Automatic annotation (TrEMBL):
Organism: Streptomyces gossypii
Keyword Transmembrane helix (UniProt): yes
Highest taxon of the lineage: Bacteria
PANTHER family, sorted: NAD(P)-BINDING DOMAIN-CONTAINING PROTEIN-RELATED (PTHR48079:SF6), PROTEIN YEEZ (PTHR48079)
A Pfam family this chain is assigned to: Epimerase
Protein's name in the database: NAD-dependent epimerase/dehydratase
Keywords: Membrane, Transmembrane, Transmembrane helix
């Protein structure tokens, strides 16, 4: 299914987003829609792309585990942004044998498809959404991309396998690959029907429901939290400044390392101010048996090399990001009684 405006000029680049209807995919697609490009948004479900005077938009629905459908989806692309992920995240990777087909198999198929492009076409740029957690148990110092990878979970092993397939193809000259290793991303994309399943949004839902916010530790564990708008901006910055990035993996982060206890209390206060109810309690509880060891280690990310190469920097503070997320999830304020 397509929705295309006027016939595009051949000189206008074609950017294809795989996984365009997902949490990160919808935000990246919305940001790209403001540009003077040809934009092809591809996902299993129908993608929603905000109306804009920028891009000429084509929307496709496709099962990208079907090799022929994948080949058709990326045909003629100058750049491909691979944001496809098996639904259910890290837990699905542990429990669903089919997750590897999505998380790894599609990347391997993509490399093969692009290897067989017609002669004379330059290798396309391929941006991949890796994960900072691919390193496994993080060191005490900030992550800067020089760490040895020792993934602890099936999800991170799959993400690493896909990244290695991309970078091996880059070394062969098949593609020009870049992996952005993402931190804990939070926020709500400005696209109806798309929601975040991450820790910040989960706690906002609990607070809006009047439930206490629970931690599996004492609240001093830190996470490098980056708002979804800043993550979308990082992908666009990589598109604009690829040459220094090609062939590498680049950790993306705010560099703050926010203590989760402070973040949860900010959520409780923001929800209180929005609803008028008292702030819900923030409490420590025993961890479940399935909690990975990485959940109890702090993560701070040093993305100075990526910033120097692209000029990117995060702009949304943790406080403003939480307030925005609460506002988006709570909906319009109730009218004051007359």
């Amino acid at each position: 299914m397509t929705a295309t405006s006027a016939t595009p000029r051949p000189s206008v680049p074609l950017i294809t987003v795989l996984g365009a209807s997902g949490f990160i995919g919808s935000a990246v697609t919305a940001a790209l829609a403001r540009r003077d490009i040809r934009l092809r948004a591809v996902a299993r479900g129908r993608s929603t792309v905000p109306l804009s005077r920028g891009a000429r938009v084509e929307i496709r629905t496709a099962d990208l585990t079907d090799r022929d459908a994948l080949a058709a989806a990326v045909e003629g692309s100058d750049a491909v942004i691979h944001l496809l992920l098996c639904s259910g995240g890290w837990r699905a990777a542990e429990e669903d044998p089919g997750s590897e087909r999505v998380n790894v198999g599609v990347m391997r198929d993509l490399v093969d498809v692009l290897r067989n492009r017609p002669g004379g076409q330059p290798p396309p740029l391929v941006l991949y959404s890796g994960a900072a957690s691919q390193v496994g148990v993080p060191p005490e110092r900030p992550l800067d991309g020089t760490e040895r990878d020792a993934p602890e979970t099936a999800y991170d092993r799959q993400k690493l396998a896909a990244e290695r397939a991309l970078l091996a193809a880059t070394a062969e000259g098949v593609v020009r690959g870049i992996s952005l290793r993402l931190p804990t991303v939070f926020g709500q994309p400005a696209v109806p029907g798309v929601s975040d399943r991450g820790v910040v949004s989960a706690m906002v839902r609990r607070a809006l429901g009047g439930q206490e916010l629970t931690m599996w530790h004492d609240g001093t564990v830190r996470r490098d939290l980056v708002h979804i708008d800043d993550v979308a901006s990082a992908f666009l910055s990589a598109l604009d400044h690829p040459e220094e990035l090609i062939g590498g993996h680049w950790p993306i982060g705010a560099g703050r390392g926010d203590p989760l206890g402070d973040v949860f209390r900010t959520i409780a206060q923001a929800v209180s101010e929005r609803t008028g109810a008292p702030p819900v309690p923030v409490v420590s509880v025993p961890p479940p048996a399935h909690a990975p060891v990485t959940d109890f280690r702090s993560v701070t990310i040093n993305s100075s090399k990526f910033r120097a190469a692209t000029g990117w920097r995060p702009r949304v503070s943790i406080h403003n990001g939480v307030v925005r997320t609460v506002g988006d999830m709570a909906g319009p304020p109730s009218p004051s009684p007359v």
